[in-house]
Write a structure and sequence with these properties.
Residues 440-450 have a biased composition (Basic and acidic residues). It holds the Pfam family PORR. Residues 397-439 have a biased composition (Acidic residues). The chain has helices spanning 10-14, 37-44, 49-59, 70-75, 77-80, 86-91, 119-134, 136-149, 157-162, 164-167, 173-176, 216-224, 247-257, 276-292, 300-307, 317-322, 354-375, 377-385, 390-424, 437-450, 456-471, and strands at residues 32-34, 68-69, 97-100, 114-117, 154-156, 185-189, 201-205, 297-299, 327-330, 337-340, 344-345, 348-349, 428-430. With 472 residues, the chain is mainly α. It has a domain at 10-30 and 136-352. It has a three-stranded antiparallel sheet with strand order 2-4-3. The chain has a three-stranded antiparallel sheet with strand order 5-7-6. Strand 11 and strand 12 form a beta hairpin. The model is unreliable at 5-21, 378-409 and 430-457 (pLDDT under 50).
Length: 472
């Protein structure tokens, strides 16, 4: 069954004034970015989770024996997106990965370590596989709705691969999920080749389901009763503590919320690209997209790549900064992550998908190992240096020491990178207000007194780096 034609222009069917969508009243004002520490923590606590999960899947990909030589893992470093050398990454999580050395004769070459999972990791992996099997139908529906958002009813397969983690898809979804839903999906040659490359593939929708073409906003309005297509729907607003809208921006926002709500599953191409109504439709598309994702957040680059395939107007990125009560942009982990505010209470999801519950258990297991290892970090380095494989260990220790220095530099520069990301974005930045403004002011004055030429935070970070290196 071919996809249905796109709907006719909505203002003709819904009956609002034809000139409504042509107006543009957004005030020319800068909307300041205010830090939300809860949402920042929601992003930051998943540090290293994706490469950790990828390494776990690689390790358990062999059904005969869940183990791999270190050399094999190191060869897949780029595919796993490991932030540094494989051996160092593995040693960050001693309660998750076991490092073993095969017994060999003295004349043989020094053995390379073999990496095995701990029983706790095996248990969590089994729980995750059961959750994926239980949520198969729901996962397929969410992927189908993503394709329904696209005017062409198809998306590049490489883009779906990029969103696989956020969509909660199995790693081998083209083989394990898609074939079970032939009435939903088909993989076809790409209609346009990216960058002149050949052999590109698209994931195409087979059958459009009208019963699924209901957005999260509409579902909520229907549960409360009295909603009809085209009626105004106001987006939930949640601002960071200390954030204040200018009076003229607040007035514009109140009027903007009263505009008719156009479903993201409807065609918005007929709307004037710079109109308030087009902006509300764009917000609706981004809102629905984030709602389809398991963590209710994704990297800003993912939204940018999706924008052209979802029919969003040029410059739609500014919509995110125009509405800080709906979206929050976190600068943690050296990237920009767009978070759907209403889906979170501080750093916790309001409605937690089963996969997210398991991911939080992975995070807990990762930190469980770190808590033990961090207290004896220096002693552990000395013990590692005195192991049986002296030649291998000494060489590895030297390289690891160099990378440890680099890690300290990376930690010290992380805040600077965050500031640079904020400066490069479309919004002004402003720290979240402290509970005690007077105390905060006194601390600021003291820093200015001690560092009259500025650069206090940079000097402190440099001092910390020097102390850390000296301790190593």
């Amino acid at each position: 069954m071919p996809p249905p034609p796109l709907p006719s222009p909505l203002h003709r069917r819904i009956g609002w004034p034809p000139g409504l969508q042509q107006s543009r009243t957004f005030v020319d004002a800068r909307v300041k970015w205010v830090r939300d520490r809860g949402l920042d923590h929601a992003v930051e606590k998943e540090k290293h989770l994706q490469p950790f999960h990828a390494l776990k899947d690689l390790l358990l990909s062999s059904s005969s024996s869940p183990s791999l030589p270190l050399d094999v893992i190191a060869a897949h470093r780029d595919d796993l997106r490991l932030p540094f050398r494989a051996i160092r990454f593995i040693r960050l999580f001693p309660s998750v990965f076991l490092e073993e050395f095969p017994q060999q004769s003295a004349a043989a070459a020094p053995p390379r370590p073999v990496i095995r999972p701990t029983p706790e990791l095996l248990r969590l992996h089994d729980d995750e596989q059961r959750a994926l099997a239980t949520c198969r139908a729901e996962t397929a529906d969410r992927l189908l709705r993503l394709l329904m958002l696209a005017p062409d009813r198809r998306l590049p397969l490489r883009l779906v691969d990029r969103l696989r983690w956020d969509l909660g898809l199995p790693r081998d979804y083209p083989r394990s999920l898609l074939p079970d839903y032939p009435d939903y999906f088909q993989i076809v040659p790409s209609s346009t080749t990216a960058g002149g490359s050949s052999g590109a593939l698209d994931l195409e929708l087979v059958c459009y389901r009208k019963d699924l073409a209901v957005s999260a906003m509409e579902q909520y309005a229907m549960r409360t009763g009295g909603y009809k297509k085209g009626m105004p729907l106001a987006f939930p607003l949640h601002f960071s503590r200390g954030f204040e809208l200018e009076k003229k921006v607040r007035k514009w926002l109140d009027e903007w919320q009263k505009l008719p709500y156009i479903s993201p599953y409807e065609d918005g191409s007929h709307l004037a690209s710079k109109s308030d109504l087009a902006e509300k439709w764009t917000v609706g598309v981004l809102h629905e997209l984030l709602h389809l994702l398991v963590p209710k957040k994704t990297e800003k680059d993912n939204l940018i790549l999706l924008g052209e395939h979802l029919g969003l107007p040029p410059g739609f990125r500014k919509v995110i900064t125009h509405h800080p009560g709906i979206f929050y942009v976190s600068n943690k982990l050296r990237t920009q992550t767009v978070v759907l505010r209403e889906a979170y209470r501080r750093d916790m999801l309001v409605e937690k998908h089963p996969l997210m519950g398991l991911r939080f258990q992975y995070i807990h297991l990762m930190h469980k190992g770190k808590e033990t290892g961090s207290k004896h970090k220096d002693g552990k380095r000395k013990r590692n240096a005195s192991r049986v494989l002296d030649d291998y260990k000494i060489k590895d220790g030297e390289e690891e020491g160099e990378e440890e220095d680099k890690e300290y530099d990376d930690e010290d520069e992380e805040e600077e990178d965050e500031d640079e990301l904020s400066a490069a974005s479309d919004v002004d930045t402003e720290e979240e207000e402290s509970d005690d403004e007077d105390e905060h002011g006194n601390r600021s004055a003291a820093r200015e007194k001690n560092f009259p030429c500025g650069g206090a935070s940079r000097t402190v970070r440099s001092w910390r780096t020097m102390m850390r290196r000296s301790s190593v």
